[in-house]
Amino acid sequence: MRRGDGHLNQDLDPDNRRPQDHCGVFGVWAPDEDVAKLTYFGLYALQHRGQEAAGIAVSDGQGILVFKDVGLVAQVFDEKILAGLRGHIAIGHTRYSTTGASSWENAQPTLSETPPGLDGAAGASVALAHNGNLVNTAQLRREVEALGLTQHRGPISTTDTAVVSALLSAYPDLSVTEAAMRLLPRLEGAFSFVFMDQDTLYAARDAHGVRPLILGRLERGWAIASETAALETIGASAVREIEPGELLAIDDHGLRSLRFANPKPRGCLVEYVYFSRPDSVISGRNVYASRVALGQALAREHPADADIVIGVPESGIPAAIGYAQESGIPYSVGLIKNSYIGRTFIQPTQSIRQLGVRLKLNAIREIIQGKRVVVVDDSLIRGNTLRSIVRMIRAAGAIEVHARISSPPIKWPCFYGIDMASKAEFISTGLDVDGVRRAVGADSLGHVSMDGLVRATEQPESRLCRACFDGDYPTATPEQRLSELERVAPTPS
Ligand code: SF4
Known about the structure:
Elements: E1 10-11, E2 20-21, E3 24-29, H1 35-45, E4 53-59, E5 64-70, H2 73-76, H3 79-83, E6 89-95, E7 110-113, E8 125-134, H4 137-146, H5 149-153, H6 160-168, H7 176-183, E9 189-196, E10 201-205, E11 214-218, E12 221-225, H8 228-233, E13 237-241, E14 246-251, E15 254-259, E16 267-268, H9 270-275, E17 281-282, E18 285-286, H10 287-301, E19 308-311, H11 316-327, E20 335-337, E21 343-344, H12 350-354, E22 361-363, H13 365-368, E23 372-377, H14 384-395, E24 400-405, E25 418-419, H15 433-440, E26 444-447, H16 450-457, E27 464-465, H17 467-470, H18 478-488
Parallel strand pairs: 16-27, 19-23, 23-24, 24-26
Antiparallel strand pairs: 1-21, 2-25, 3-6, 3-12, 4-5, 4-6, 7-8, 8-9, 9-10, 10-14, 11-12, 11-13, 14-15, 17-18, 20-22
Helix pairs in contact: 4-6, 10-11, 10-16
The structure holds iron/sulfur cluster (SF4).
Iron/sulfur cluster binds at residues 210, 268-270, 414, 416, 418, 465-468.
Protein backbone atom coordinates (compact mmCIF):
# COMPACT_ATOMS: atom_id res chain seq x y z
CA MET A 1 0.00 0.00 0.00
CA ARG A 2 1.27 3.42 -0.71
CA ARG A 3 -0.10 6.70 0.57
CA GLY A 4 1.04 9.77 -1.32
CA ASP A 5 4.55 10.92 -1.82
CA GLY A 6 4.51 12.93 1.38
CA HIS A 7 6.86 15.79 2.00
CA LEU A 8 9.53 15.37 4.57
CA ASN A 9 9.62 16.74 8.06
CA GLN A 10 11.53 19.97 8.22
CA ASP A 11 14.09 20.24 10.96
CA LEU A 12 13.53 23.65 12.47
CA ASP A 13 17.00 23.80 13.78
CA PRO A 14 19.41 22.12 11.37
CA ASP A 15 22.55 23.80 12.68
CA ASN A 16 21.87 22.65 16.19
CA ARG A 17 21.25 19.03 15.36
CA ARG A 18 22.19 16.44 17.91
CA PRO A 19 23.51 13.09 16.74
CA GLN A 20 20.62 11.17 15.22
CA ASP A 21 20.10 7.46 15.32
CA HIS A 22 19.42 5.49 12.23
CA CYS A 23 16.21 3.71 13.10
CA GLY A 24 14.25 1.48 15.36
CA VAL A 25 13.10 -2.01 14.39
CA PHE A 26 10.35 -4.20 15.76
CA GLY A 27 8.97 -7.67 14.94
CA VAL A 28 6.25 -9.90 16.31
CA TRP A 29 5.07 -13.50 15.75
CA ALA A 30 1.76 -14.07 17.51
CA PRO A 31 -1.11 -16.06 15.92
CA ASP A 32 -3.72 -14.88 18.47
CA GLU A 33 -2.88 -11.19 18.49
CA ASP A 34 -3.50 -8.12 16.36
CA VAL A 35 0.13 -8.04 15.21
CA ALA A 36 -0.19 -4.74 13.31
CA LYS A 37 -1.40 -2.96 16.46
CA LEU A 38 1.34 -4.52 18.59
CA THR A 39 3.87 -3.33 16.02
CA TYR A 40 2.32 0.14 15.94
CA PHE A 41 2.75 0.51 19.70
CA GLY A 42 6.23 -1.02 19.55
CA LEU A 43 7.20 1.58 16.94
CA TYR A 44 5.55 4.32 18.97
CA ALA A 45 7.89 3.41 21.84
CA LEU A 46 10.84 3.57 19.41
CA GLN A 47 9.90 6.90 17.85
CA HIS A 48 13.01 8.58 19.31
CA ARG A 49 15.18 6.35 17.10
CA GLY A 50 13.83 7.78 13.85
CA GLN A 51 11.25 10.41 12.96
CA GLU A 52 11.37 10.65 9.18
CA ALA A 53 9.33 7.64 8.13
CA ALA A 54 7.54 4.63 9.57
CA GLY A 55 6.30 1.36 8.13
CA ILE A 56 4.72 -1.98 9.00
CA ALA A 57 4.69 -5.26 7.00
CA VAL A 58 2.30 -8.10 7.89
CA SER A 59 1.90 -11.66 6.67
CA ASP A 60 -1.23 -13.78 6.89
CA GLY A 61 0.62 -16.86 5.66
CA GLN A 62 -0.41 -16.24 2.05
CA GLY A 63 1.30 -12.95 1.23
CA ILE A 64 2.94 -9.88 2.72
CA LEU A 65 1.37 -6.43 2.81
CA VAL A 66 3.48 -3.33 3.52
CA PHE A 67 2.28 0.12 4.50
CA LYS A 68 4.82 2.90 4.96
CA ASP A 69 5.09 6.63 4.57
CA VAL A 70 7.16 9.61 5.59
CA GLY A 71 6.19 11.10 8.95
CA LEU A 72 5.90 10.11 12.59
CA VAL A 73 4.34 6.77 13.53
CA ALA A 74 1.11 8.47 14.63
CA GLN A 75 1.00 10.50 11.39
CA VAL A 76 1.51 7.48 9.13
CA PHE A 77 -1.00 5.06 10.71
CA ASP A 78 -4.60 5.30 11.82
CA GLU A 79 -7.20 2.74 12.94
CA LYS A 80 -8.41 2.12 9.39
CA ILE A 81 -4.96 1.43 7.99
CA LEU A 82 -4.06 -0.86 10.87
CA ALA A 83 -7.35 -2.75 10.49
CA GLY A 84 -6.31 -3.54 6.90
CA LEU A 85 -3.05 -5.11 8.04
CA ARG A 86 -4.15 -8.59 9.16
CA GLY A 87 -1.92 -11.56 9.84
CA HIS A 88 0.14 -13.46 12.40
CA ILE A 89 3.60 -12.01 11.68
CA ALA A 90 4.58 -8.34 11.47
CA ILE A 91 7.70 -6.26 11.33
CA GLY A 92 8.03 -2.48 11.63
CA HIS A 93 10.50 0.33 11.26
CA THR A 94 11.02 3.96 12.24
CA ARG A 95 13.54 5.67 10.00
CA TYR A 96 16.13 8.37 10.33
CA SER A 97 18.10 8.46 7.09
CA THR A 98 21.87 8.33 7.12
CA THR A 99 22.23 6.69 3.71
CA GLY A 100 20.03 7.26 0.68
CA ALA A 101 17.80 10.21 0.06
CA SER A 102 14.86 10.79 2.40
CA SER A 103 11.89 9.61 0.39
CA TRP A 104 9.00 7.19 0.39
CA GLU A 105 11.07 4.74 -1.67
CA ASN A 106 13.71 4.59 1.05
CA ALA A 107 11.22 4.08 3.89
CA GLN A 108 11.12 0.59 5.36
CA PRO A 109 10.25 -2.27 5.53
CA THR A 110 11.48 -3.07 2.02
CA LEU A 111 9.70 -5.82 0.13
CA SER A 112 11.25 -8.11 -2.48
CA GLU A 113 10.14 -11.28 -4.22
CA THR A 114 12.29 -14.29 -5.04
CA PRO A 115 11.79 -15.57 -8.60
CA PRO A 116 10.04 -18.98 -8.98
CA GLY A 117 12.38 -21.95 -8.32
CA LEU A 118 13.87 -24.05 -11.12
CA ASP A 119 11.30 -26.73 -10.25
CA GLY A 120 8.55 -24.19 -10.82
CA ALA A 121 7.83 -23.73 -7.09
CA ALA A 122 6.43 -20.29 -6.25
CA GLY A 123 8.96 -17.73 -4.93
CA ALA A 124 8.84 -16.16 -1.48
CA SER A 125 8.21 -12.57 -0.51
CA VAL A 126 10.71 -11.06 1.92
CA ALA A 127 10.15 -7.88 3.97
CA LEU A 128 13.12 -6.37 5.77
CA ALA A 129 13.79 -3.63 8.34
CA HIS A 130 17.28 -2.49 9.35
CA ASN A 131 18.92 -0.52 12.14
CA GLY A 132 22.58 0.19 11.44
CA ASN A 133 24.74 0.91 8.45
CA LEU A 134 26.90 -1.32 6.23
CA VAL A 135 30.40 -0.31 5.20
CA ASN A 136 30.69 -2.59 2.12
CA THR A 137 27.50 -1.46 0.36
CA ALA A 138 29.39 -0.50 -2.83
CA GLN A 139 30.72 -4.03 -3.13
CA LEU A 140 27.27 -5.51 -2.52
CA ARG A 141 25.74 -3.14 -5.06
CA ARG A 142 28.13 -4.45 -7.71
CA GLU A 143 26.99 -7.95 -6.81
CA VAL A 144 23.36 -6.90 -7.34
CA GLU A 145 24.32 -5.59 -10.78
CA ALA A 146 26.39 -8.69 -11.62
CA LEU A 147 23.39 -10.92 -10.78
CA GLY A 148 21.29 -8.85 -13.17
CA LEU A 149 18.78 -8.04 -10.41
CA THR A 150 18.31 -4.45 -11.59
CA GLN A 151 17.43 -5.68 -15.09
CA HIS A 152 14.77 -8.06 -13.82
CA ARG A 153 13.32 -5.91 -11.06
CA GLY A 154 13.99 -2.38 -12.24
CA PRO A 155 15.98 0.21 -10.29
CA ILE A 156 16.88 -0.69 -6.70
CA SER A 157 16.85 2.07 -4.09
CA THR A 158 20.14 3.63 -2.97
CA THR A 159 20.10 2.32 0.61
CA ASP A 160 22.19 -0.53 1.99
CA THR A 161 18.90 -2.06 3.17
CA ALA A 162 17.48 -2.22 -0.36
CA VAL A 163 20.67 -3.93 -1.55
CA VAL A 164 20.47 -6.54 1.24
CA SER A 165 16.78 -7.02 0.52
CA ALA A 166 17.54 -7.68 -3.16
CA LEU A 167 20.33 -10.14 -2.33
CA LEU A 168 18.22 -12.00 0.25
CA SER A 169 15.73 -12.87 -2.44
CA ALA A 170 18.22 -13.38 -5.29
CA TYR A 171 18.48 -17.17 -5.13
CA PRO A 172 15.34 -19.00 -6.28
CA ASP A 173 16.63 -22.39 -5.16
CA LEU A 174 17.54 -21.39 -1.62
CA SER A 175 15.13 -21.02 1.25
CA VAL A 176 15.15 -17.60 2.95
CA THR A 177 17.06 -19.16 5.87
CA GLU A 178 19.69 -20.58 3.50
CA ALA A 179 19.97 -17.30 1.59
CA ALA A 180 20.39 -15.41 4.88
CA MET A 181 23.07 -17.82 6.11
CA ARG A 182 24.92 -17.31 2.84
CA LEU A 183 24.55 -13.50 2.78
CA LEU A 184 24.90 -12.39 6.43
CA PRO A 185 28.58 -13.39 6.87
CA ARG A 186 29.45 -11.20 3.87
CA LEU A 187 27.87 -8.04 5.29
CA GLU A 188 30.28 -5.67 7.02
CA GLY A 189 29.31 -2.91 9.41
CA ALA A 190 26.41 -2.64 11.82
CA PHE A 191 23.12 -4.41 11.28
CA SER A 192 20.24 -5.31 13.51
CA PHE A 193 17.72 -6.79 11.07
CA VAL A 194 14.18 -8.00 11.49
CA PHE A 195 12.78 -9.68 8.39
CA MET A 196 10.07 -12.08 7.40
CA ASP A 197 8.69 -14.24 4.67
CA GLN A 198 5.09 -15.47 4.62
CA ASP A 199 5.68 -18.00 7.42
CA THR A 200 8.72 -17.00 9.43
CA LEU A 201 9.94 -14.05 11.47
CA TYR A 202 13.73 -13.60 11.47
CA ALA A 203 16.14 -11.46 13.49
CA ALA A 204 19.88 -11.08 12.87
CA ARG A 205 22.64 -9.02 14.46
CA ASP A 206 26.13 -8.33 13.11
CA ALA A 207 29.15 -10.09 14.64
CA HIS A 208 30.01 -6.98 16.71
CA GLY A 209 26.44 -6.42 17.94
CA VAL A 210 26.93 -2.67 17.46
CA ARG A 211 23.21 -1.83 17.59
CA PRO A 212 20.95 -3.42 20.20
CA LEU A 213 18.33 -6.08 19.38
CA ILE A 214 16.30 -7.91 22.02
CA LEU A 215 14.08 -10.99 22.03
CA GLY A 216 10.88 -10.80 24.05
CA ARG A 217 8.18 -13.32 25.04
CA LEU A 218 4.45 -12.81 24.75
CA GLU A 219 1.98 -15.17 26.35
CA ARG A 220 1.52 -16.91 23.00
CA GLY A 221 4.19 -15.52 20.76
CA TRP A 222 7.46 -13.72 20.39
CA ALA A 223 8.54 -10.14 19.86
CA ILE A 224 11.83 -8.54 18.82
CA ALA A 225 12.76 -4.89 19.34
CA SER A 226 15.64 -2.44 19.24
CA GLU A 227 15.06 -1.67 22.92
CA THR A 228 13.59 -3.41 25.95
CA ALA A 229 11.30 -0.39 26.54
CA ALA A 230 9.40 -1.26 23.35
CA LEU A 231 8.90 -4.85 24.53
CA GLU A 232 7.53 -3.65 27.87
CA THR A 233 5.19 -1.26 26.06
CA ILE A 234 3.39 -4.18 24.39
CA GLY A 235 3.41 -6.41 27.49
CA ALA A 236 6.26 -8.67 26.37
CA SER A 237 8.99 -9.70 28.79
CA ALA A 238 12.61 -9.35 27.66
CA VAL A 239 14.18 -12.82 27.29
CA ARG A 240 17.69 -12.05 26.04
CA GLU A 241 19.64 -10.06 23.46
CA ILE A 242 20.01 -11.50 19.99
CA GLU A 243 23.67 -12.50 20.13
CA PRO A 244 26.24 -10.90 17.87
CA GLY A 245 26.54 -13.18 14.81
CA GLU A 246 23.19 -14.93 15.49
CA LEU A 247 20.23 -15.50 13.17
CA LEU A 248 16.93 -16.32 14.89
CA ALA A 249 14.01 -17.86 13.02
CA ILE A 250 10.52 -18.08 14.57
CA ASP A 251 7.64 -20.01 13.01
CA ASP A 252 4.92 -22.57 13.79
CA HIS A 253 7.62 -25.03 14.90
CA GLY A 254 9.08 -22.65 17.49
CA LEU A 255 12.31 -20.72 17.73
CA ARG A 256 15.60 -21.73 16.05
CA SER A 257 18.98 -20.13 16.62
CA LEU A 258 21.68 -20.31 13.93
CA ARG A 259 25.16 -18.82 14.05
CA PHE A 260 26.52 -17.13 10.93
CA ALA A 261 29.63 -15.50 12.50
CA ASN A 262 31.76 -15.75 15.62
CA PRO A 263 30.73 -13.07 18.11
CA LYS A 264 33.16 -10.16 18.62
CA PRO A 265 31.00 -7.84 20.74
CA ARG A 266 31.54 -4.08 20.35
CA GLY A 267 28.23 -2.48 21.40
CA CYS A 268 27.78 1.25 20.76
CA LEU A 269 28.81 3.36 23.78
CA VAL A 270 26.61 6.24 22.69
CA GLU A 271 23.47 4.13 23.16
CA TYR A 272 24.13 4.51 26.91
CA VAL A 273 24.89 8.24 26.73
CA TYR A 274 22.22 9.48 24.41
CA PHE A 275 20.34 7.25 21.96
CA SER A 276 18.46 4.66 23.97
CA ARG A 277 15.53 5.44 26.20
CA PRO A 278 16.45 5.76 29.89
CA ASP A 279 14.01 2.97 30.77
CA SER A 280 15.74 0.51 28.42
CA VAL A 281 18.31 -2.06 29.49
CA ILE A 282 21.41 -2.81 27.38
CA SER A 283 23.57 -5.84 28.20
CA GLY A 284 22.03 -5.98 31.66
CA ARG A 285 22.64 -2.29 32.46
CA ASN A 286 19.75 0.17 32.83
CA VAL A 287 20.38 3.24 30.68
CA TYR A 288 19.10 5.73 33.29
CA ALA A 289 21.43 4.28 35.93
CA SER A 290 24.40 4.57 33.57
CA ARG A 291 23.55 8.24 32.87
CA VAL A 292 23.30 9.05 36.59
CA ALA A 293 26.68 7.31 37.11
CA LEU A 294 28.10 9.42 34.27
CA GLY A 295 27.01 12.58 36.09
CA GLN A 296 28.59 11.34 39.30
CA ALA A 297 31.86 10.66 37.47
CA LEU A 298 31.70 14.14 35.92
CA ALA A 299 31.32 15.73 39.37
CA ARG A 300 34.39 13.86 40.66
CA GLU A 301 36.48 14.63 37.58
CA HIS A 302 35.33 18.24 37.04
CA PRO A 303 34.02 19.81 40.26
CA ALA A 304 32.63 23.37 40.18
CA ASP A 305 31.85 26.10 42.71
CA ALA A 306 28.21 26.64 41.85
CA ASP A 307 24.72 27.22 43.30
CA ILE A 308 22.60 24.94 41.10
CA VAL A 309 22.94 22.05 38.62
CA ILE A 310 20.60 21.93 35.64
CA GLY A 311 20.39 19.41 32.77
CA VAL A 312 19.71 19.87 29.08
CA PRO A 313 16.50 17.91 28.41
CA GLU A 314 15.99 15.06 27.92
CA SER A 315 19.13 12.97 27.97
CA GLY A 316 21.27 15.46 29.96
CA ILE A 317 18.90 15.32 32.94
CA PRO A 318 19.90 11.98 34.54
CA ALA A 319 23.57 13.03 34.31
CA ALA A 320 22.70 16.39 35.93
CA ILE A 321 20.94 14.51 38.76
CA GLY A 322 24.07 12.36 39.18
CA TYR A 323 26.28 15.48 39.22
CA ALA A 324 24.09 17.06 41.89
CA GLN A 325 24.08 13.87 44.02
CA GLU A 326 27.85 13.56 43.95
CA SER A 327 28.69 17.27 44.37
CA GLY A 328 26.01 18.17 46.91
CA ILE A 329 24.98 21.15 44.73
CA PRO A 330 21.15 21.31 44.49
CA TYR A 331 19.55 20.06 41.26
CA SER A 332 16.94 22.29 39.60
CA VAL A 333 14.88 22.21 36.44
CA GLY A 334 16.25 25.24 34.63
CA LEU A 335 15.53 24.41 30.99
CA ILE A 336 12.19 23.35 29.54
CA LYS A 337 11.91 21.43 26.28
CA ASN A 338 9.05 21.57 23.84
CA SER A 339 9.13 17.96 22.72
CA TYR A 340 6.66 18.50 19.91
CA ILE A 341 8.22 21.27 17.85
CA GLY A 342 11.50 19.65 16.81
CA ARG A 343 10.19 18.08 13.63
CA THR A 344 7.17 19.39 11.84
CA PHE A 345 5.65 19.43 8.41
CA ILE A 346 5.51 23.22 8.45
CA GLN A 347 8.44 25.01 6.84
CA PRO A 348 9.59 27.67 9.35
CA THR A 349 9.93 31.28 8.24
CA GLN A 350 13.40 32.80 8.25
CA SER A 351 12.67 34.83 11.38
CA ILE A 352 11.47 31.73 13.24
CA ARG A 353 14.52 29.79 12.05
CA GLN A 354 16.76 32.47 13.54
CA LEU A 355 15.32 31.73 16.96
CA GLY A 356 17.29 28.48 16.65
CA VAL A 357 17.43 26.40 19.78
CA ARG A 358 14.80 28.59 21.51
CA LEU A 359 12.13 26.78 19.55
CA LYS A 360 13.03 23.64 21.43
CA LEU A 361 14.35 24.92 24.75
CA ASN A 362 13.60 27.79 27.08
CA ALA A 363 15.23 28.85 30.36
CA ILE A 364 13.33 29.50 33.61
CA ARG A 365 14.54 32.94 34.71
CA GLU A 366 13.20 32.54 38.27
CA ILE A 367 15.46 29.50 38.79
CA ILE A 368 18.59 30.82 37.11
CA GLN A 369 18.78 34.54 37.92
CA GLY A 370 21.75 35.52 40.10
CA LYS A 371 23.07 31.94 40.29
CA ARG A 372 26.33 30.21 39.42
CA VAL A 373 24.98 27.43 37.18
CA VAL A 374 26.39 24.02 36.22
CA VAL A 375 24.69 22.91 33.01
CA VAL A 376 25.06 19.25 32.02
CA ASP A 377 24.60 18.08 28.43
CA ASP A 378 25.19 14.64 26.94
CA SER A 379 27.40 15.38 23.93
CA LEU A 380 29.24 18.09 22.08
CA ILE A 381 29.24 17.82 18.29
CA ARG A 382 29.43 21.13 16.43
CA GLY A 383 29.08 23.24 19.58
CA ASN A 384 26.20 25.33 18.23
CA THR A 385 23.64 23.92 20.67
CA LEU A 386 25.85 24.46 23.72
CA ARG A 387 26.77 27.99 22.59
CA SER A 388 23.06 28.87 22.30
CA ILE A 389 22.28 27.27 25.66
CA VAL A 390 25.09 29.10 27.46
CA ARG A 391 23.86 32.36 25.92
CA MET A 392 20.29 31.57 26.96
CA ILE A 393 21.31 30.81 30.56
CA ARG A 394 23.30 34.05 30.77
CA ALA A 395 20.35 35.96 29.29
CA ALA A 396 18.20 34.47 32.08
CA GLY A 397 20.49 36.13 34.63
CA ALA A 398 23.16 33.50 35.51
CA ILE A 399 26.35 35.03 36.90
CA GLU A 400 28.52 32.04 35.90
CA VAL A 401 27.91 29.11 33.53
CA HIS A 402 29.94 25.91 33.95
CA ALA A 403 29.34 23.42 31.15
CA ARG A 404 29.78 19.71 31.82
CA ILE A 405 29.48 17.05 29.11
CA SER A 406 28.65 13.43 29.94
CA SER A 407 30.74 12.04 27.05
CA PRO A 408 34.34 12.60 25.93
CA PRO A 409 35.01 14.94 22.95
CA ILE A 410 33.67 13.44 19.69
CA LYS A 411 36.38 13.55 17.03
CA TRP A 412 35.59 10.79 14.54
CA PRO A 413 32.56 10.14 12.35
CA CYS A 414 30.32 7.12 12.93
CA PHE A 415 29.94 4.62 10.08
CA TYR A 416 27.48 2.43 11.94
CA GLY A 417 24.21 4.24 11.56
CA ILE A 418 24.60 7.40 13.62
CA ASP A 419 24.37 10.69 11.79
CA MET A 420 26.78 12.96 13.67
CA ALA A 421 28.76 15.18 11.32
CA SER A 422 31.97 14.99 9.34
CA LYS A 423 35.33 15.29 11.05
CA ALA A 424 35.80 18.88 9.90
CA GLU A 425 32.50 19.90 11.53
CA PHE A 426 33.30 18.62 15.04
CA ILE A 427 34.13 21.51 17.34
CA SER A 428 36.74 19.35 19.08
CA THR A 429 38.66 18.91 15.81
CA GLY A 430 41.58 21.32 16.03
CA LEU A 431 40.54 22.95 19.36
CA ASP A 432 41.62 21.90 22.84
CA VAL A 433 39.08 21.94 25.69
CA ASP A 434 39.91 25.56 26.58
CA GLY A 435 39.52 26.58 22.93
CA VAL A 436 36.10 24.92 22.88
CA ARG A 437 35.18 26.60 26.19
CA ARG A 438 35.94 29.99 24.69
CA ALA A 439 34.04 29.13 21.50
CA VAL A 440 30.88 28.21 23.45
CA GLY A 441 31.28 31.12 25.90
CA ALA A 442 31.28 29.09 29.16
CA ASP A 443 33.22 29.98 32.32
CA SER A 444 34.50 26.40 32.52
CA LEU A 445 34.06 23.21 30.50
CA GLY A 446 34.66 19.58 31.42
CA HIS A 447 34.04 16.28 29.63
CA VAL A 448 33.74 12.95 31.41
CA SER A 449 36.81 10.79 30.72
CA MET A 450 36.67 7.62 28.61
CA ASP A 451 37.40 5.66 31.76
CA GLY A 452 34.48 7.34 33.56
CA LEU A 453 32.18 6.61 30.63
CA VAL A 454 33.14 2.95 30.34
CA ARG A 455 32.75 2.41 34.10
CA ALA A 456 29.27 3.96 34.00
CA THR A 457 28.14 1.33 31.47
CA GLU A 458 29.44 -1.54 33.66
CA GLN A 459 30.68 -3.27 30.48
CA PRO A 460 34.27 -4.38 29.77
CA GLU A 461 35.98 -1.74 27.59
CA SER A 462 36.93 -4.41 25.03
CA ARG A 463 33.22 -5.11 24.36
CA LEU A 464 32.33 -1.51 23.47
CA CYS A 465 32.62 0.50 20.26
CA ARG A 466 34.28 3.83 21.15
CA ALA A 467 35.25 4.77 17.60
CA CYS A 468 33.70 8.27 17.50
CA PHE A 469 35.84 9.16 20.52
CA ASP A 470 39.13 7.44 19.67
CA GLY A 471 38.96 6.40 15.99
CA ASP A 472 39.36 2.67 16.79
CA TYR A 473 36.74 1.26 14.40
CA PRO A 474 35.69 -2.38 14.85
CA THR A 475 35.51 -2.87 11.04
CA ALA A 476 37.07 -1.40 7.92
CA THR A 477 35.68 2.03 7.00
CA PRO A 478 33.55 2.55 3.87
CA GLU A 479 36.45 4.50 2.29
CA GLN A 480 38.83 1.59 2.86
CA ARG A 481 36.37 -0.84 1.29
CA LEU A 482 35.71 1.50 -1.62
CA SER A 483 39.38 2.03 -2.41
CA GLU A 484 39.96 -1.76 -2.29
CA LEU A 485 37.10 -2.18 -4.71
CA GLU A 486 38.44 0.47 -7.04
CA ARG A 487 41.88 -1.13 -7.01
CA VAL A 488 40.31 -4.39 -8.18
CA ALA A 489 37.91 -2.90 -10.70
CA PRO A 490 38.53 0.81 -11.38
CA THR A 491 35.34 2.86 -11.80
CA PRO A 492 35.25 4.33 -15.33
CA SER A 493 35.81 8.10 -15.20
S1 SF4 B 1 31.30 5.18 16.32
FE1 SF4 B 1 30.36 6.04 18.21
S2 SF4 B 1 28.18 6.32 17.71
FE2 SF4 B 1 29.06 4.97 16.14
S3 SF4 B 1 28.67 2.89 16.88
FE3 SF4 B 1 30.73 3.45 17.61
S4 SF4 B 1 30.39 4.36 19.65
FE4 SF4 B 1 28.41 4.29 18.62
